[in-house]
Amino acid sequence: MEHSAQFNKSIKIVSIKSLVFSTETSTSYVEMTPLKPLSLSAFTLCMRVATELSGEREVILFAYRTREYDELNVWRELDGRLSFYLAGDGVLFSVPGLGPLESHLCVTWDSSSGASAFFMNGRKSVAKIYKKGHTTRPEGKVLLGQDPDSYVGEFDAKQSFVGEISDLNMWDYVLSDTTIKDMASGKRVTTGNIFDWESTRLHIHGAVDVVKREL
Amino acid sequence: MEHSAQFNKSIKIVSIKSLVFSTETSTSYVEMTPLKPLSLSAFTLCMRVATELSGEREVILFAYRTREYDELNVWRELDGRLSFYLAGDGVLFSVPGLGPLESHLCVTWDSSSGASAFFMNGRKSVAKIYKKGHTTRPEGKVLLGQDPDSYVGEFDAKQSFVGEISDLNMWDYVLSDTTIKDMASGKRVTTGNIFDWESTRLHIHGAVDVVKREL
Amino acid sequence: MEHSAQFNKSIKIVSIKSLVFSTETSTSYVEMTPLKPLSLSAFTLCMRVATELSGEREVILFAYRTREYDELNVWRELDGRLSFYLAGDGVLFSVPGLGPLESHLCVTWDSSSGASAFFMNGRKSVAKIYKKGHTTRPEGKVLLGQDPDSYVGEFDAKQSFVGEISDLNMWDYVLSDTTIKDMASGKRVTTGNIFDWESTRLHIHGAVDVVKREL
């Protein structure tokens, strides 16, 4: 009994949802409702992601679109690089590719300096200066699984996400490198103030399975 | 003196058995006796495994068969992917291949959601939905080293295991990701309630060496 | 409130500058002012560095030159090896290459034994004996980003640094392996007595962005 109590104390288990996109479709996606408007002059976006997609294939990882614009898209590019786009041309990073074993992925951006970076399993990429002074527009939709070419619609199966996404959190500021490293190694040090995966509501459309996993 | 005692306390050495299958045969295998019947609606199966087999070669990693059915088989497929089969068609995972350096391998499955995944050295694969609602049948035999095409018999050397297997544990529930990561990094946080490698009885048939190793 | 205080206490955040060299130039560089003259019979030089440069390309990582001599240059060589040069022929180390995800890099040298080594993310290279009895000359200039072929001038774009450098510290003695390992894993155990990145003055020339990052 005491041993068991000891055991439960030292390993705190957190149960979270995980999204499984099993097949390539132009119809399956998940919409997420943010805790505050996405009028952002800085952000940190993190997720755990695994995919068996390989070869020359674009993969959408996160899409935020208002009626008129793609406000914030995160992609794996055709050549395997990771990128994000704020309303126009994007910025690409030669970060070793996503793969079939789960990666902890973050992207950070700060409008005041334009500094942006990817973090793969806690390791930071080269910083790149991108869209200094820009602010994203609020009142759009956040989708996982598909890239909308209009306001929630016109999906292209060849850009869809296939694999598993979980533990997506988003903040309206830039987290410290140490905090990101701690999260990558499994410590639950903070949850997002725009998206908090443990409490966020997921609106499932099409063939997306929601499974539970224990971290 | 005190320093030494301190040292011994912090590094606990566990001595376990390890199975060495030195050559390709259709006759060598090890039978394991479970602690409870394998009537499973969920499981976690872990082992440490190394093999110099390479190229296009099926390799059986774990076989549980009742008189009529292959209930649970774990394979490395011809193309290097890992897979498992519950009484019929299986589910395949593009997990980087087993090799000559020892890997810590786990597979998890939960009937209620159908969620299944492989873990390679603590890193989780894409989850896949498989055999939701299924339960395995009890009163079969568990074999390592050979795939029985009948109830313990009709072995095919070209599917046999060659290499080393140790520290195989099995649970009738799904362990948390953190627990699996801890085991992969060498922490002895829990042992199986179906197979507990430190106490399990091994019935050796043919040319299988049992060696001791210290973890 | 208390939770927040707790949180801030356990994760001490250090804010530092980071240098981003976005494009290949023969004009952009940063000059650093040392805290004491670089008349050195031993040193440890550490930095965090990431670069997307790949293929056959020399990359200057650190240059200290007096009017007449290249006193201390650290390079990535054409073939990817790391090296340093003390006024003449250098010493090369087959250390796995710098890349697009940030590495913590140190180089140590001690004149009395001639022992020198690189450390990549806390892992030590083979030691090599180099320039026993040598001392570097003081009163030169320290540059990041370019290799001067004269006293601050004659830069070659094909040797320039492109990427990000931060957290550069230098000591006039050899740090212990454990201290270097601790720094690589993010602990702020010591800062340099020749260059202390948290307080050093950076003189920017050309297109170098200075961004803030939180460790």
From TrEMBL, chains A, B, C:
GO terms for cellular component: extracellular region. It comes from the Eukaryota. Belongs to the pentraxin family. The keyword Metal-binding applies. This is Pentraxin family member. Homopentamer. Pentaxin (or pentraxin) have a discoid arrangement of 5 non-covalently bound subunits. It is found in: Secreted. PROSITE patterns: PTX_1, PTX_2. Its main location: secreted. Binds 2 calcium ions per subunit. One of its GO terms (molecular function) is metal ion binding. Keywords: Calcium, Disulfide bond, Metal-binding, Signal. Residues 15-215 form the Pentraxin (PTX) domain. Its cofactor is Ca(2+). The keyword Metal-binding applies.
